[in-house]
Write a structure and sequence with these properties.
Layout: H1 2-22, E1 27-28, H2 32-38, H3 47-52, H4 59-62, H5 66-74, H6 85-91, E2 101-102, H7 114-118, H8 132-137, H9 149-154, H10 170-177
Parallel strand pairs: 1-2
Length: 181
Amino acid sequence: MKNAAMFLALALAFTSLTAFTFSGSNEYVGSKSCKACHSNAKMGGTAYKKWDGGPHSKAYETLKSAEADKIAKEAGHKTKAVETDACLSCHVTGMMEKGAKFSKRFKKTEGVGCESCHGAASAYKTKHAKDVAGAKKLGLESPSIADGSAEKLCVSCHNEKSPTYKGFDLKKYWAKIDHSK
């Protein structure tokens, strides 16, 4: 009986520890942490350059405009767009995630970065080049058009709740951010 109780206590402790370690404990480290490998054609292609030249890298900057402040005010917010949680939730990586953790290297000025699609990277960033399956266990996500996960992720922000929504055509916009080549 005593051994069974000890086993149960250890099993619960291990389960709690692994759930904490691998579910939600990853920190957002920022897209610049991805740059070294994902700017190099030999290592990871040109994904970083594609992101840096695309609309998501500038998402935070768009909140600094007078037009953004006007939109926030018209939506009933009393703060500037760049200070409004409802705006930041779609214009900054990880801001929609309850309980998100951010490393000291993370800069919200990077806008909507790599980790918005691929998950907080602190645990998998050094592993994923050599062991994708292992990295997925540590939080790496790979949204796909084929299984609908990419569209589901995109429409979490690109939807009618956004005050600037004008419709969303995944195929049209995917071409602007696709970095699979």
